[in-house]
Amino acid sequence: VQLVESGGGLVQPGGSLRLSCVASGFTFSGYPMYWYRQAPGRERDLVASITGSGLSTDYADSVKGRFTISRDNVKNTLYLQMNSLKPEDTAVYYCHNSHLRKWGQGTQVTVSS
After folding, report:
1. What's the CA gap between 91 and 48, in Å, rounded?
2. How far out from the chain centre does Cα 19 lie?
3. Can you tell me the distance from the alpha carbon of 105 to that of 22, in angstroms, rounded to the nearest whole number?
4. How many helices (H) and strands (E) does the chain have?
5. Closest C-alpha among 85, 82, 72 to residue 7
6. pLDDT tens, the chain, 113 aa long
């Protein structure tokens, strides 16, 4: 089982990024998936979740209306589209499969002018 994130980087406030998480070693469509983030000195917090079918999603209040979680079950890939980024969105972002207790290695997102 492997989860590999990509797409992080440095972006100015108000900018956008799209994170990707490629999954392997399990039946991707059979599991809900999650994006978490961890800022320096803080706990790892849930950002967004999506069901296995992709038909239902949920978001932390802090990102509602700005972030969109989605998935492509043919490409075994989870996405997080992040718009209107704020400095407080700066964190390492992780994808997660809770049933298999698997985390990716994380991708750094820095929002700064």
Report:
1. 14
2. 6
3. 11
4. 0, 11
5. 82
6. 999 999 999 999 999 999 999 999 999 999 999 999 999 999 999 999 999 999 999 999 999 999 999 999 999 999 999 999 999 999 999 999 999 999 999 999 999 99
